[in-house]
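In practice, a research group might receive sequence data for several interacting partners and want a quick structural hypothesis before committing to experiments. The following worked case mirrors that situation: the sequences arrive first, and a predicted assembly follows.
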Amino acid sequence: MNIYVLLKRTFDTEEKISISNGKIEDEGAEYIINPYDEYAVEEAINLKDAHGGEVTVVTVGDEEAEKQLRTALAMGADKSVLINTEDDLEEGDQYTTVRILEAYFKENEPDIILAGNVAIDEASGQVGPRLAERLDIPFVTTITDISIDGETVNIERDVEGDVEKVETTLPLLVTCQQGLNEPRYPSLPGIMKAKKKPLEEIEIDDLDLEEDDVEAKTKTLEIFLPPEKQAGKIIEGEPDEQVKELVSLLKNESKVL
Amino acid sequence: MNFELTKEQEMTRKMVRDFAEEKIAPRAIDIDKNSEFPEDLFKEMGELGLLGIPFPEEYGGSGGDTVTYALAVEEIGRVCGSTGLSYAAAVSLGASPLYYFGTEEQKQEFLIPLAKGEGLASFGLTEPNAGSDAGGTQTKAVLEGDHYVLNGEKSWITNAEYARSITITAQAGKREDGKNIISAFIVPKDTPGMTIRSDYDKMGVRGSNTSEIVLEDVKVPKENILGDPKKGFGQFLHTLDGGRISIAALAVGIAQASLDRALAYAKERKQFGEPISKFQAIQFKLADMAMEVELARNMVLKAAWLKDEGKPFTKESAYAKLFASETAFRSANQAIQIHGGYGYMREFEVERFLRDAKLLEIGEGTSEIQRMVIARQLGC
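A structural hypothesis for the assembly, expressed as tokens:
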């Protein structure tokens, strides 16, 4: 089976993030594999173990993403592809990424493509479904369980806390939700083996794309951090006085009652 | 000159940090409080290949280097000194002598399971009356036919209760000048006559297993003598040089944890209307801690690098062990001070850092012994 994973390098939202000149500061930010994409890598390896084949991890980004690709290889993926847009593109959006991936997959024959449900940075959740549309294959989002039998695929997906069961067929694109699996740590032997696994680097030229073909359809106007949390207010006095004070504050100040 | 880590070293550090924070950190308080050896964590660490980092693949290891190993020890030490100490001892004292000095047969039988993480091993050098003065070893080994018979007593042996084999040092005859020949013998677990007791009630690293070993007519096949019978003493010195790097790395972990906790607390704690991190008295403490942690780490990595390059590292590993362990103690002490009364409480963890750090100024050669090693290297 030809198993593909779409992986995004993203900053760790658990670490401190700072913004200057409308951009997220690179310095000091910690970069990781998008956590939802980790579920995709783990599931891809499990599918390979069960059905045979090969796992290829694909990312669109710059050279810095090599570390995240190597980590996926250390977890057990077989090959990785970096579509390096550093020299060709200033800005990109979901449309850009989808067009690039479309061109890449036109030259390959995926049986299944796994992606994260969303990337934790911009959380648009668009690349997976839009790519499937472009490739004219079915897609199922937010999956929490998958089993493949021949061409038939049975999936459980998370729908706002409920479970929906879906039957579909290969070739297929799915996006992975928390709960699908517990991603493994890359083991030491895995890390050492990853050194020898192929990491192919291509540019959009290699996919017969021009800059104009992939020009972003959207424009980011502003990026800002959520307002800092204000200090709480402590209400003093006897319990019944406190209750009165609280109710009056909820009514008059925050106007929620 | 290049201070950058390789991708493999970076990835290993990240993996061990994630593992340490998710799996070890939540249990660190209980491991210390209940003196519980986290056997299950060692099983998981074995599966991840952590117990075989500095050994080649042909012996079941991961084919990493000493730098990678030092980074792993630091990350584990950062969340739990007990687990960090048992980890460092398992690799540097348990497995390393077998790798460096063992015969091919000994490596096959005793090293491979350790490097694969299927078991732990210990190094039995210290005795009630002989520590760094290894020449004063009183345990005796006598050759009788095809066997050596060992009698004696060992103290403060890390991981012995959980070891599948213990490398025991003993007198095995006399040199021409009348001095004792000290050799090492691989004693498999459950060998009759070997009694292991773990009754020590320790100040720190309480979750790391520490045992007393009594040897009464313990018979081991004569092939179990480790490496060259005449070079026993040099073997221990080399083993201890390597062990010092790992103890130093553990110390850097504890020092870093102390700094992390102290800095976070100082930014949060408000007194006189502002965070105490705005007060110069606290700032100076934090600045000193940060500087010393970084200096200690640099020395550890340099010693590890020298070892990887096959260059002499005796002096540098003593520098690293001495400076890093004293840095860990100072940093933990200052972290408690910055926390005030809270720092004296177990749940804030910094008091544990101090108790754990104290061991690092004693184990594998006290700070005084490190100064002697350095002085000897200076030609004194």
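Before designing any experiment, note the following. The CA atoms of residues 16 and 172 of chain A lie 37 Å apart. Chain A has a mean pLDDT of 92.
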